[in-house]
């Protein structure tokens, strides 16, 4: 570690910091929650985009890692993590060729499928290399983004079973539309309801094929809720590691006005760079540093907690006051909980890992830009 970079206060902003104590608490909590319920955790790396963090999740007890894209899986594999589930469909010939090349290096690699055409292409490409591969049937449980409609899911499963080099391992059923429902009870009822068709499909597939042992689902917002489902075998949660303002604002079982299970490990550090206006100051984090999606970023410095951040163009943000809280002077570094962690992380090259006011490590965001 560079000797000149030992304190948070020395960092050039805007930059991303990870509070190691909160991060490890989040890792331990999700791991304990799933283990207590007799389930597995396969966290999603689309959130943190960092092989060092993925390794930490594996060391904490995760059985594998999810990626959204082939290029993320390639990067994880280069970093020595081979037990990967790709949760998005891979449909073109050239991308399937990359997938098969990766499978040759990583026998435990799994991918989801939701259409007969790519299933045929994958089987042919694997056959050319003399390989087999594990697949999950992606079932659409109401997000209507990817996944086979439940009504034709068994037909598609039969199509997979017709290919001897594809091993049907089970299903994926990600209810993204439920994750940020504010009311805990509505989220609970909604998630259980929309996963019902997937439960029926999973049971039917288990009766058809003994290899069907995986029911992979859920995100941070419904993690505790979905663990009640006996058929579910593993959680795919991602955001719980870092957390963001959007998630912190949803209700939980204990408190319907905030999400109490996981803490804000991820912080965006930004400096006050201009104080020449009445009523607001300008900071150096704008659209290029803080993705505009989800909720309003939250300032967490205790002395400035009542102030509000708003975007002020590509490079800047505006901090406005509220009542008695004084404006931060020029040069002040503010710590913000990001609006939506995943796309904000994808804007940076590294995390500064902190404990209290000290920087204890830097971790490369090495899956950054892996969107293919
Ligand atoms: C397929 C899939 N699984 C799991 C997740 C993780 O969800 P979360 O970040 O809400 O925990 C996502 C996030 O978008 C996803 O797309």
Word description of this protein:
It is a single chain. The chain has 372 residues and is α/β, with parallel strands linked by helices. It has a domain at 20-242: Alanine racemase (TIM Barrel, Alpha-Beta Barrel). It contains ten helices and 17 strands. Strands 1, 10, 11, 12, 13, 14, 15, 16 and 17 form a nine-stranded mixed beta sheet that branches. An eight-stranded parallel beta sheet has the order 2-9-8-7-6-5-4-3. Helix 3 (70-78) packs parallel to helix 4 (93-105) and helix 4 (93-105) packs across helix 5 (116-129). Pyridoxal-5'-phosphate (PLP) is lined by residues 44, 46-47, 87, 174, 176, 179, 219-221, 236-240.
Assembly type: single chain
User: How many helices in DSSP terms?
Assistant: 10
Assign a percent range to the helix content. 25-40%
Order of SSEs, N→C?
A: EHEHEHEHEHEHEHEHEHEEEEEEHEE
């Amino acid at each position: 570690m560079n000797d000149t970079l030992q304190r948070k206060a020395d960092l050039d902003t805007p930059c991303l910091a990870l509070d190691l104590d909160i991060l490890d608490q989040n890792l331990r909590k999700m791991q304990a929650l799933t283990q207590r319920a007799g389930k597995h955790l396969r966290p999603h790396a689309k959130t943190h985009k960092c092989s060092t963090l993925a390794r930490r999740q594996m060391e904490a007890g995760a059985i594998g890692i999810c990626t959204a894209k082939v290029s993320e899986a390639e990067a994880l594999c280069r970093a020595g993590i081979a037990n990967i589930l790709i949760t998005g469909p891979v449909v073109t010939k050239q991308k399937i060729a990359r997938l098969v090349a990766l499978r040759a290096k990583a026998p435990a690699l799994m991918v989801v499928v939701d259409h007969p055409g790519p299933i045929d292409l994958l089987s042919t490409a694997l056959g050319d290399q003399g390989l087999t591969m594990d697949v999950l049937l992606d079932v659409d449980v109401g997000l209507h983004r990817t996944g086979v409609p439940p009504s034709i899911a068994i037909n598609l499963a039969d199509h997979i079973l017709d290919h001897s080099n594809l091993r049907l391992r089970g299903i994926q059923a990600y209810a993204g539309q439920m994750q940020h429902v504010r009311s805990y009870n509505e989220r609970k009822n909604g998630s259980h309801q929309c996963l019902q068709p997937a439960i029926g499909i999973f049971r039917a597939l288990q009766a058809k094929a003994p290899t069907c042992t995986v029911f992979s689902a859920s995100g941070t917002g419904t993690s505790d809720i979905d663990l009640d489902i006996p058929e579910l075998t593993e959680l795919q949660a991602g955001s719980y590691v870092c957390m963001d303002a959007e998630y912190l604002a949803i209700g939980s079982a204990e408190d319907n006005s905030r999400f109490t299970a996981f803490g804000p490990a991820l912080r965006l550090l930004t400096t006050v760079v201009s104080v020449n206006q009445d009523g607001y100051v300008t900071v150096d984090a704008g659209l290029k540093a803080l993705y505009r999606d989800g909720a309003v970023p939250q300032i967490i410095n205790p002395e400035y907690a009542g102030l509000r951040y708003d975007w002020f163009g590509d490079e800047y943000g505006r901090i406005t006051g509220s009542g008695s809280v004084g404006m931060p002077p020029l040069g002040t570094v503010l710590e913000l909980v990001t609006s939506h962690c995943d796309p904000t992380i994808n804007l940076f090259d590294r995390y500064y890992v902190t404990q209290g006011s000290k920087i204890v490590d830097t971790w490369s965001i090495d899956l950054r830009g892996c969107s293919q």
